[in-house]
Specification:
Heat Shock Protein 90, 5-stranded antiparallel β-sheet, alpha+beta, 5 strands, 36% helix
C-alpha cells in the first residue's frame, strides 16, 4: 500500500490470481475505506472492487495463482477510482454487454453490477483491464 500527497488514501497492489489473495486484500481495504466513507458508501466501494477483482481472477486468469492481478484504488474528494488489470488475454466486452444473466444463473452479472453501482465504467480495448469511478460524499456520518 502506498499513500500519495493530496489524496485521502491510495492503495496499489499486485496480487496472485487467487480468491484467497482477494480476501486478504479486503482485510486492508475495509480498514482504509472506513477512513472517509460512511457504511453505505463502504458497501458500494467494496462491491465494485470485489466484483472487478473476482472477475479478473476467475475469468481473466483462470484462478491461476502464478498469474497476477494489479489493482489501484484512490479516494480523493468524494471520488473513488478503481483500476484492475489482469494477465489474461482479455474478453470482448462489447459482446458481453449484450448478454443479460437469467434468474437461475449463478454468474454473469458482473458488468450489470458495475454499471448499476458505478458512475463510470471503462474497459481496455483488449478487455483485460477496467477503470471504475464512484462518486460520493467522502465524509463519514455519525
Amino acid at each position: 500500500m502506498t499513500l500519495a500527497a493530496g489524496v485521502d488514501w491510495e492503495m496499489r497492489m499486485a496480487l496472485p490470481a487467487s480468491l484467497q489473495a482477494v480476501e486478504e486484500f479486503f482485510l486492508e481495504l475495509r480498514q482504509r475505506s472506513r477512513q472517509g466513507m460512511d457504511q453505505e458508501n463502504c458497501f458500494a466501494a467494496e462491491l465494485l472492487v470485489r466484483e472487478a477483482l473476482t472477475n479478473a481472477v476467475v475469468h481473466g486468469c483462470g484462478a491461476d495463482g502464478r498469474r497476477q492481478v494489479r489493482c489501484v484504488l484512490r479516494l480523493k474528494r468524494g471520488r473513488l477510482l478503481v483500476v484492475v488489470e489482469d494477465d489474461g488475454k482479455g474478453f470482448n466486452w462489447h459482446m458481453a454487454r449484450r448478454h443479460q444473466a437469467s434468474l437461475p444463473d449463478c454468474s454473469g452479472r458482473g458488468m450489470e453490477i458495475l454499471d448499476r453501482y458505478a458512475n463510470r465504467v471503462r474497459y481496455s480495448d483488449r478487455g483485460n483491464a477496467v477503470m471504475i469511478i464512484k462518486r460520493f460524499n467522502s465524509r463519514k456520518t455519525p
